[in-house]
Amino acid sequence: MEEGTTCLSGGDFVKNWDQWKKTLNEAIKTAKKVGLPDKIIELASVKVGDFLAERICAESKEEALLKELWDAANPDERKTLGKLLFKIMAKG
């Protein structure tokens, strides 16, 4: 995050990990229902990951771990993380 920029509270969007997973699962189901292929949804997950890592403060141990992994990853590794998160969230 750029110096002087404050991050947003993840708690403003997600109250707990299970609710976050459920919300993302429903978003994936909706995307599939309108015909988006998995590949496009996976690529979108990378864009979302970039946004979250840049703007959202980690407020739970899960968020902190995801941010640390994301920050350590190169662009190809972020695609892999995005695909793995997609798989986890698609399960529900």
Structural class: mainly alpha
**Total helical segments:** 4
Q: SSE string, helix = H, strand = E? A: EHHEHH
Largest sheet: 2 strands, parallel
What is the averaged pLDDT score? 81
Portion of residues within helices: 55-70%
Describe this structure in words.
The protein is mainly alpha-helical. The protein has a domain at 37-92. The protein contains 4 helices and 2 strands, in the order E-H-H-E-H-H. The chain has helices at residues 17-33, 38-55, 61-72, 75-91; strands at residues 8-9, 56-57. A two-stranded parallel ribbon has the order 1-2. Helix 2 crosses helix 4. The chain is globular and about 35 Å long. The protein starts with 7 loop residues before the first strand and ends with a helix. 12% of the residues are buried.
